[in-house]
Specification:
70% helix, 10 helices, 4 strands, mainly alpha, two-stranded antiparallel sheet, single chain
Length: 302
């Protein structure tokens, strides 16, 4: 008969209860990420249509699944806090789901999207296409690894009190995924509208998007593991009393979403990723303001 011997100094904890509703919403996040991978894998040509709707391609549908995962990612934490059922299990489950939806799914979507557009290049120059394909896979690996590291670091450094979440260290993984996905959806929505009217412009924008997307993905992945500070949009900009200028910015951002949601997503996600990077570069180039202290010495402004 086999006996289990407990090692001294080691306690074993068993999970007895879990919060049902927040956990189901978190699992919806993971399912949406998995469906995004499925839809992207079935897209063999750039103009495959779903339900015969112009611009509603399998690539775009994959991107929408990732955005739906973002909504689930926001809701599960809110529901858990409102119902007072936050737990370590929920936090770990959330991070595992985020790895799928905001790590693996955007990287796979980027690889498949660019790979489809490289089909003609494989016919013209096979050797160059092989090199680009390997570089593409390397960028996807870097992005996924950075997302995993980002989420693991967040679990270690996370504070339970949401009021302390005024900023993030590094670009949040949903925002990094949003940068990649918004560009794909915007391209898929814009291309059918200009393909017939201006073929030259169509090829120019298509080429720019295809070649810029891997670079943007690489930058977004690296930003996730940096220590660059990014503000929490809800806690820092929406809660409490704000200035009139902040109100106008939010109001016009809402109008842009109503007028052209795809362009608003690109501006919003890319702008958010650039704000932290530009602020960090500015602080490196511009010396801190020197303020004389009460003792007559000089101290730097924090």
């Amino acid at each position: 008969m086999n006996l289990r011997i407990k090692k001294p100094g080691r306690t074993q904890r068993k999970l007895k209860y879990i919060a049902i509703l927040p956990s189901l919403i978190t699992l919806l996040n993971a399912v949406c990420g998995f469906m995004a991978i499925i839809y992207a894998s079935r897209a063999f040509v750039a103009d495959v249509l779903v339900f015969q709707r112009p611009g509603f391609t399998l690539f775009a549908l994959s991107g929408y699944m990732i955005f739906l995962a973002m909504i689930a990612d926001v809701l599960d934490g809110r529901v858990a806090r409102l119902s007072k059922t936050t737990s370590s299990f929920g936090g770990q489950l959330d991070s595992l789901s985020d790895v799928i939806s905001f790590g693996v799914a955007p990287a796979f979507l980027m690889v498949k999207f660019v790979d489809v557009h490289l089909q003609t290049l494989r016919i013209i120059n096979p050797a160059f296409a092989v090199i680009l394909g390997r570089l593409l896979m390397f960028i996807a690996f870097v992005y996924v690894v950075c997302a995993v590291i980002r989420l693991a670091r967040f679990n270690v450094e996370n504070v339970v009190d949401e009021s302390a979440h005024m900023s993030f260290s590094g670009l949040p993984s949903p925002a990094a995924a949003g940068v990649v996905v918004s560009l794909v959806i915007f391209q898929q929505d814009l291309m059918p509208k200009i393909a017939g009217s201006s073929p030259e412009l169509f090829h120019i924008i298509e080429s720019i998007t295809v070649w810029a997307l891997p670079v943007v993905t690489l930058i977004a992945g690296i930003l996730m593991v940096t220590r660059i500070r990014y503000g929490h949009l809800v806690n820092q900009y929406l809660r409490g009393k704000k200035s009139f200028a902040t109100f106008l910015v939010i109001f016009f951002a809402g109008l842009l979403c109503v007028w052209y949601i795809h362009l608003a997503m690109v501006i919003g996600f890319c702008g958010f990723a650039l704000t932290g990077l530009v602020r960090w570069i500015y602080r490196l180039l511009v010396p801190k303001k020197q303020v004389p202290s009460e003792q007559g010495t000089v101290s730097s402004e924090q």
